[in-house]
Every structure is written in structure tokens, then in C-alpha cells.
Amino acid sequence: MSADGSVAPRDAGQCWLPVEQNLAVAEQNFASPPEALQPKWEPVLWVPRMALLFGAALLTGAFASELYAVLSFVRMTPVQFLFLILSTLTFAWIAIGSLSAAMGFLPLFARDHDLSIELPPASTALSDPGRTALLFPVYNEAPARLAACIEAITEDLARRGATKRFDVFVLSDTRGEEVGTREAAAYALLRNQLADRIALYYRRRDQNTAKKAGNIKEWLARFGGSYETFVILDADSIMSGDTLVRLQVAMAGRPRAALIQTVPRLVGGRTIFQKLQQFAAGTYGPAVAMGLAVWHRHQGNYWGHNAIIRTRGFAGAAGLPELPGAAPFGGNILSHDFVEAVLLQRAGWEVHMAPTIEGSYEGAPPGLVDLAVRDRRWAQGNLQHLAIVGKPGLTPMGRIHLGMGICAYVVSAIWAASLVVGLVLALQGQQLVPSYFQDSKSLIPIWPVIDPGAAFRLFVATMAVVLLPKALGLILEIERARRSADPGGALRVTCGVLYETLLSMLFAPILMVTQTAAVAQILAGRDAGWASQRRDDGRITFSESLSFHRWHLLLGAGAATVCYIVSYSLMAWTAPILLGLLLSAALSWYTARPAGGLVSWLLATHEDRHQPAILRRVDTLAGTWGHRLAEPKRG
Predict the structure, then answer these.
(1) For the chain, what is the radius of gyration of the CA atoms?
(2) Which residue of 103, 488, 618, 622 has the smallest Cβ count within 10 Å?
């Protein structure tokens, strides 16, 4: 039996592990929350939160008022009222995100990081910081790249004399004996190579129960007792030795902290799609992340990787139960990271985000198809939180985290519904579906009266709110270029923002349809399953792209037909949406291709222009390991 009372798991194939030091993993009961030392009322925490709420409410109220003026008939028809509600809900979501980014922009521009957690330097002296495990949960991942990452991290820790405070675990859920045997052989080579510097352990589960969350839980129950903290890293994650040591020191100095989440920078992209994601995250992401840190404070969220976690706090407060019922809403919790952060908060632990620390990196999906596959799984996990968000004992911030995760996907369906209702209104305006009388007794027709001034103000204000995070990110990058004496930096990043904005506008309706379809599938009871991810090569043939995007193309053609029937002006207003859908297959095929020189220059991030040493080392080692692990050709 394991420490948590479950049957001890069986390991599959070749494994090498340390002596077990069991740790009880307490499965949480949502119906009866544990007694916890709740944090004191701290007004400073609620000032930015109330400012965000008030600002978003003010902007949303102004939007609703202007939209009502645009739709100002003698009486509001039910269709108009529905359009007003759906559009206002969509705008409210955008306003919250943009104002949050604005809150993060101010301290970054002033170079004042006191509003978020500051990690001590790696040189801080500690008598006994405890041991830290670096966990790499993998599922059918190519070993060469991960072996390179582990070796580079080990070398970086060795330069700081810190390897004896860290152990490495590769926790495999890979399926298939042949694949598993090759995987074990690869990590055996790596273990032997690093034997004089760091302890590396490998385990492959016989049954991958509860997927990644179950993988971590099983490690906690068997080996967690030996470690004060652990760091979870995905197969495409990299963290510098300096960052790992700083996180370890920070946890030792904050006894109430259970989790510190870094904000990993996207790196290593080769395709146009990856370059777009890297540029967006690198340019707009800092303000967004700092904004979250400003109003989350020590009640932050968890993204499932590139974070350090206090072992006993996590085991005692964040053991996930199985939800009643069948998938997609019941069973194992898929988006476990959000729920684990909420459970830690419920028990009185602090959850921090460190938005300004450098040295934390991850990869990005190589193409839109790969993003959609991952997004489908995330959508199911986030909608599963509908069964948790109302449970007793959660903190207000915990409910906000779960609610925002749900809204991230539901808002796409709301936006799609608002567009459909808008097309119905346009058809009514052309008298294809007359609705000029409120009821059969009315003798006075209700003629449409559009206020052009209100319509223009609404358009300008909406675009300002939508584009605000991009504008703030551009200002920060221009300021960075000025400080670093980069004469062409301002021009390059401005062109990059224009290019990224154009493509992101075309991608937006594609993702809207994809996420709306995901929500519909989940509500219909369809499970997403669990597929391995492509990390580097996202190329697809044009016929494959046409097949994947056939519904986008059909919807785009149908919407374009309706707009053509109504008026050319309506086609002009909806052009970004129509073009995005009609060009979906071409965009997906094009952006999954390797980026050329001009695109790479336009979308170059700080890490591209000044590649950190550990990233260069990973690239070099990945080639070496690729040759070492290549299967011999059969004659």
C-alpha cells in the first residue's frame, strides 16, 4: 500500500529509483474544507482588485450605453436586446484583460517591481535550504531534446556549486513497450553521463492513471518525503541554474509560501506560428503578467510547470479527488493546476507569481492545428471547473481564478452568438425578416434610427480597449530599445507589432469557431482524450489544412453571402472576420512553415537577439543527443 492508502503502483520496464520515502497525499473533500489559518484582512490587496473591477464596470457601462444609442429604436426588440447583452458580455471580458495589462504596465515602465514578489539573489547564504527534486513528466516525448535540457541545466547548476541540492526525476507515462524500451535506454545513457554531478532517476508507470496529475501524485506518495520542494518542468521547459537556486532560496525564506510560479518566456520556435507566439508573449506578456501579479498578490494561480512547490504543503492540501460522473465533466480533473492553486489558497498557503524573474523558458505549439488540439483538452479541463467553482470554503480569489478559466472559452461562444445575432439584425434591416411592429395591435411602425456619431464613437473606443495591451507592450519595447542603445530596435518592434496584429486579427475568428465547437462538444458529452504533442515540426500539406478547416471555410462563405445580400458596407465592417475564416486553411498551412529571414527579423524577441547561454547549450546538446540516439539504418 502507498502512503495515501492506495494500491502501490507497478513500474513498467527498466526503471532506476532512490529508496522510497513515503509521504501521505491527502485527497481533498470539496464538501468539507479543512480548517485553515486564513489570511488577515489586508486592505492593500483589495485596492487594485476593486480598481480593476470598478474600471471594467465603468468601461462596460459606457460601451453598453453607446451600443444602446446605436440600436436606438422606439422600443428595443428581443433580437436587439439579445445582441446588446451578448456584445456587452464580450466587451466586459476584453476590458478586464486590457485594464489588468495597464495595471502591470505602470510599474514596469517606472521600473518599480515592489508590487510583485522579488526573489533574493542566488548567492544568498542559507544554512540548510533542503533538497529539491526537478520533475519532468513525459508522455511519448522524443528523449533527445529532454536529455539536452537536463544536461544543460545540470551544467548550469554545477557552475554554481548547487547540484548536490537537486535531484532529477524523469516520470514517464509513455505507452508501448518498444517505445518505452528506447526511452529507458536513452535516459540510462544520460544517467551514466551525469553520475558524477547529479542524481538522475527514471520511472515509467505501468498504468497512466489520472494522467499528469496522477503522475505527480504517485511520485509524491513514493518519494516526496525526501524533498523540501520540487519543481515541475514540461518536456519543452528549461530553467537556468541561477533561477532554480533563487526559487529554492525564496521558498526557504517564505515559510507560508507553497508555490512560486515563474512566467516562462517562449523560445526555440522555428515556424512562423511559433515566432508569432513568441513575439506576442515577449512583447505584450510582461505587462499582462505583471498586471496579474499586482492584483493577485499572494493568491495567485498555477500554470502546471516552471514553478517551485513546497512538498508537504502540496501533499497535505492539494491532493485532487475524482469528480463524480463520467467525462467530460466527471472523472479525473484535467486542468489540475488551477484547482491545486485554489486548494492551496483554501488551506491558507500563499501562491505567488514572479513575473520579472528571467531564466525560465518553454516552447510553443508549431502550428495552429497543434494549438487547436491542445486547446480542446484545456477547454474541457476548464469547463470541468463548473463543478468546483461553487464548492464551499474556497477563497474569493480562488473562485475568480476558476471563473476566469471557464470564461476564457465560454466567451468565444458568446462572441460567436453575438455575430450570428448581428447578422440577423442586418437581415431585418434589409426587410428580409420584417419586424417593424411590436405586436398585432400596433398601428405605428417602429423605424430603425441609427445614430452614426454613436456608432463611430463605439468603434473607436472598442478598438482602443482591444489594442491597449499591444500598445503598452510596444511602448515598453521601445523604451527597452532606447535604454539598450539599439538604434533600429524601435522600428523593428513597431513593424513586428503591426505584422503580428494583422495576423492575430485574422486568427481570432478561427480560434473563435474552434473554441465554440469545443464548448459545444464538451456540453454534448464528448471527451477530448489525451494525445501526445508535436514540439518542433508543425508542417501540414495544404489538403490536410483544407480538411481541418473545412467548417471555418463553410462558415466564412455563408457569412460572406449574407453580408453581400445585405450591403457592401456590412462586408467592409466584417472583413477581418470573413477574411480570417475564408483564409483559415491558407493561414494555417503558411504559418506552420519555417520562418524566413524577414519574418524572423520582424518577430525577433529579446532571447532571439541575445540568446541566453543555457539556450545555446541546449541547442548544441540537442544535436549531439540526436545523433547518439538515432536508430541505426537497417540494410
Answers:
(1) 26
(2) 488
pTM greater than the 0.70 cutoff: yes
Instruction: Give the Cβ contact number of residue 523 at 10 Å.
Output: 12
Pairing of strands 229-232, 199-204: unpaired
Q: Residue 547 corresponds to which cell in the numbers above? A: 480538411
**Residue 38: C-alpha distances to residues 16, 394, 414 (Å):** 41, 11, 36
Supply 359's cell numbers: 531564466
pLDDT of residue 69: 84
Q: In the structure, what pLDDT confidence band is assigned to residue 432 with cuts at 50, 70 and 90?
A: very low
Interval 314-330: pLDDT, tens: 999 999 999 998 888 88
Residues comprising the chain, all counted: 635
d(CA 154, CA 168): 9
| Residue at 370: amino acid letter | D
Burial annotation 172-188 (CB, 10 A radius, 16+ → b, else e): bbbeeeeebeebbebbe
* Residue among 267, 289, 501 at smallest CA distance from 364: 267
User: Nine-digit cell at 314?
Assistant: 502540496
CA separation for the pair 179, 12 (Å, rounded): 12
Using left for φ > 0, alpha for ψ between -120 and 50, and beta otherwise, residue 304 falls in left
How is the chain split into domains, by residue range? 45-113+410-613
